[in-house]
Design brief:
The chain is α/β, with parallel strands linked by helices and 224 residues long. A hairpin with a 5-residue loop joins β5 and β6. The protein has 9 helices and 7 strands, in the order αβαβαααβααβαβββα. It is globular and about 50 Å long. The longest helix is centred in the C-terminal third of the chain and has 16 residues. A 7-stranded mixed beta sheet has the order 1-3-2-4-7-6-5, sandwiched between helices.
């Protein structure tokens, strides 16, 4: 079975695990498996929750890659960051100047920590409740194991400190691994399966070039 087929089976099982999830469950995972397997690095971005929808998160990534939703700041920044990590950390001007930069989204994986719909503003308590549920933790761990990323970008909390949502991921992946801090204050940890980097949400309020330079610039020192 392919990774995508295994993920589809997992989501069917996950959705059936609780009656509340019927009609309120958003799958996610690998945007394009062939491109993902050929990418320079296997990268997974972890977001918080679906924004008032039950659609496949990967469909949103594909729509942006096809130029159907150019106004979406989340996907624009995810494309910039992915380009930086997967194309040897070029300057932001080079990324922004490439008319095909959105195509990089085909090479990544994306998932929401919470699979049920939230609102326009995420509530940390609800995301924590979902991600700390023992049965959901088993499914989250299995999903990440199937995706098998070498680098996980945790876009679920602030970049300047480790909060409960970053910790929720650490407890699932590497409970014994210590957080390290880069020179510019980006937190990360190394564990047997790869690298976890704590980041802010890509729809942040800072200018896109500022976000790119801080995150991708520090990611370069951490990854290499």
């Amino acid at each position: 079975m392919t990774r995508t087929e295994r993920l589809n089976e997992l989501f069917s099982e996950w959705k059936a695990s609780k009656s509340d999830y019927a009609g309120d469950f958003s799958p996610d995972g690998i945007v394009d498996e062939e491109c993902y397997e050929k990418a320079a690095r296997r990268v997974l971005f972890v977001l918080k929750e679906p924004n008032a929808h039950h659609e496949d998160l990967c469909d949103h990534a594909r729509n942006f890659a096809l130029g159907r939703d150019k106004s979406a700041a989340t996907w624009r920044n995810l494309a910039y960051w992915s380009y930086g990590i997967l194309r040897d950390f070029p300057a932001f001007s080079q990324v922004e100047g490439d008319p095909t930069y959105t195509q990089i989204l085909y090479e990544i994986a994306v998932m929401n920590l919470k699979k049920t719909a939230g609102g326009s503003s995420a509530k940390k308590s609800e995301i924590l409740r979902f991600s700390l549920d023992s049965s959901n933790q088993v499914f989250i761990r299995r999903e990440i194991e199937i995706i098998a990323p070498q680098i996980i970008i945790s876009c679920v909390g602030p970049v300047s400190r480790v909060d409960e949502l970053h910790e929720a991921l650490r407890s699932l992946l590497a409970p014994g691994a210590p957080w390290l801090r880069s020179q510019k204050g980006v937190y990360y940890l190394r564990f047997e399966a790869g690298l976890l980097i704590a980041s802010a949400h890509p729809a942040g309020r800072f200018a896109e070039d500022v976000q790119y330079d801080k995150f991708v610039g520090e990611a370069q020192t951490i990854v290499q």
